[in-house]
Amino acid sequence: MSDGDLLARIFLTRVIEPGDETGGRWLREYGTAEVVRRLSEDGVAALPGVSETRWAGLRARARQADPERDLAIAREAGARFVVPGTVEWPAQLDDLGDARPLGLWVRGRPGLRMWALKAVAVVGARACTEYGAHMAATLAAGLAEHGWVVVSGGAYGIDGAAHRGALGAGGATVAVLACGVDRPYPRGHTELINRIAEQGLVVGELPPGEHPTPSRFVLRNRVIAALTRGTVVVEAALRSGSLVTARAAQRLGRFTMGIPGPATSGLSTGVHELLRGEAVLVTDAAEVVELVGDMGELAPARRGPVLPRDLLEPAARRVLAALPGNRPASPEEVARGALTSEDEAIARLYELRALGYVERHGDGWKLTRQAMISVRDGRSRC
User: Fold this and answer.
1) Residue 30: its H or E element
2) Could you tell me the CA-to-CA distances from 210 to 73, 112, 197, 205 in Å, in that order?
3) Is the dihedral of CA 169, 171, 177, 181 positive or negative?
4) Are 105 and 174 in contact (CB under 8 A)?
5) Cα separation, 124 vs 241, whole angstroms
6) Statement: 91-292 belongs to CATH 3.40.50.450
7) Per-residue pLDDT, 43
8) Are 282 and 260 in contact (CB under 8 A)?
């Protein structure tokens, strides 16, 4: 891409809001240079699809744009501008169609395209619970240990916990901001975002110095969804902005996952609604990787603890289960309960006595205290 084309797209970031599909259609149909010319020159026809008032507003913005100054400020802050069609551009962002970013301002040394090839979004509530923060940090650390890049929005709550979890594990993380990458937001996360820029990447659509607005937060979420293979929502109320990310992921054909919370928690109601739909329930990094990773990356099977009685032969377990818990029983009674012969029952009873499960009481047999505990534990797992 020539310097002229680069400056033209930087110019447009001052004029067209993120996610503006009308602006994206203009670029696709007329080309960057023509859109810039129409916005910049007097006496030219307006581009279609907007009212006169809207066009006048865009033209007023265009008069204030100074792409060379923006580029100089960004470079001073250690940022570069990555545009579609260049080596570092993540091709999956093209799935956004006309809502695709004009370009992305990037702080940090790693290549964005390579990192985005193996990335997972971890998002959720700003006002999260201790449980939510713990799950987000643990999940992000686990993903980092599996070699995955953790992407989030740099906000308070779940976002911050996810970034810290990845950084704490020595892994890779990307913060996608709804403002200029030279002005960390929220202010309370300045140190965290600067650390992410040193160890990972800080990304945003807006030019240097731009501030966030509610609509920009919402539109930022589509970038998080498109940039990653899947989105995990840790905690979210019914109107949480993180659900916007999850729904964008679903529209784009990405995996959508949720970590369940207590049924009584209002901060988990949004997650539970996702799980009632097309989202997949996950509880740790291995389960996320099984879903978004390559073939054969399976989570370990979930099993309860192995009890000593589980190691007995099936015939011996049946005889053990046939013994009453509160009194001795004759070999004949045990045989009937175990559906076997009396001789087989006696043989198994002597085997069980050697293992400490039963003891003789006259002509009968009775469970030892150890066996009663073992049988009770086994029944409680059923």
Assistant:
1) helix 21-30
2) 12, 22, 18, 10
3) positive
4) no
5) 8
6) yes
7) 82
8) no
Looking at the chain, the domain(s) classified CATH 3.40.50.450 span 91-292
Q: Tell me, what's the pLDDT at 312?
A: 86
Question: Which of the following CATH numbers is that of domain 308-380: 2.60.40.60, 1.10.10.10, 3.40.50.1980, 1.20.1250.20?
Answer: 1.10.10.10
The per-residue pLDDT for range 193-250, each reduced to its tens digit, is: 999 999 999 999 999 999 999 999 999 999 999 999 999 999 999 988 899 999 999 9
How many Å apart are CA 15 and CA 25, to the nearest integer? 15
Tokens of 82: 């990555």
**DSSP sequence for 211-278:** PP-HHHHHHHHHHHHHHSSEEEE-S--TT-THHHHHHHHHHTT-EEEE----TT-GGGHHHHHHHHTT
pLDDT higher at 312 or 14: 14
Name which of 91, 88, 86, 94 is nearest 112 in CA terms: 88
E-only strand ranges, the chain: 79-82, 104-107, 119-123, 149-152, 173-177, 201-204, 230-233, 255-258, 280-281, 358-361, 364-367
Give the pLDDT band of residue 376 (cuts 50, 70, 90): low
Dig out the tokens for 106 from the structure: 């990037």
Q: Report d(CA 99, CA 239) in Å as an integer.
A: 23
Residue 329, SS3? strand
- What does the block give as tokens for 266? 């209002």
d(CA 65, CA 293): 43
Say yes or no to pLDDT of 298 above 90. no
Domain with CATH 1.10.10.10 in the chain: 308-380
Query: If 0-12 CB within 10 Å is exposed, 13-18 middle and 19+ buried, where does residue 42 land?
Result: exposed
Closest CA to 119 of 249, 293, 245: 293
Residue pair 21/219 in contact (Cβ under 8 Å)? The answer is no
Closest to 162 (Cα-Cα) out of 178, 177, 142, 147 = 142
The pLDDT of 319-327, averaged and rounded, is: 88
Phi, psi angles (nearest 5°) of residue 281: -75, 130
DSSP string, 182-207: TS-SSGGGHHHHHHHHHHSEEEESSP
Tell me how far apart the alpha carbons of residues 327 and 354 are, in angstroms, rounded to a whole number: 20
